[in-house]
Amino acid sequence: MSMSRPKRTFDREFKLTLMHQLESGEKRPGQVCREHALSHSLLKRWRDQYAELGDQAWSDSQPNAEAEDSPRVRELEAALGRAHLENELLRRALRQAEKGGFRPGRSGR
Fold first, then answer.
1. Distances from the Cα of 72 to the Cαs of 19, 30, 62, 75, 77, in angstroms?
2. Closest-CA residue to 14 (of 41, 40, 43, 34)
3. How far is CA 75 from CA 62, 72, 81, in A?
């Protein structure tokens, strides 16, 4: 079973610093991704947002989907996590049953 990393959040200043490093040529996208363990798709999204809004990107007046975790989204993510654990438990039980280690209808005698 793979455990996902806790969700990280990045503040506006961090994102702007990275965008300025990329814009000035101080760092390349691959280098930024490696140094900060970021996915290329996340960095691309930030670059697109920065290209559109410049230094106004990620300001409080701009809606930020990453920071908006509504109660409904949290509820659904929790339900998904529970479903994933249940599925993993059922997979293990099925593998055990296929090996002959589980016989339905028999008591533990």
1. 32, 35, 21, 5, 9
2. 43
3. 25, 5, 10
**Using CA atoms, how far apart are residues 13 and 23, in angstroms rounded to an integer?**
15
Query: What is this structure's pTM?
Result: 0.52
As a whole number of angstroms, the distance between CA 86 and CA 80 comes to 10
| Element (DSSP H or E) covering residue 20 | helix 12-24
List the structure tokens of 12.
Answer: 């506006």
Helix axes 40-53, 29-36, angle to 10 degrees: 120
Tell me the per-residue pLDDT of 9-31, one tens digit each, with 9 for 90 and over: 999 999 999 999 999 999 999 99
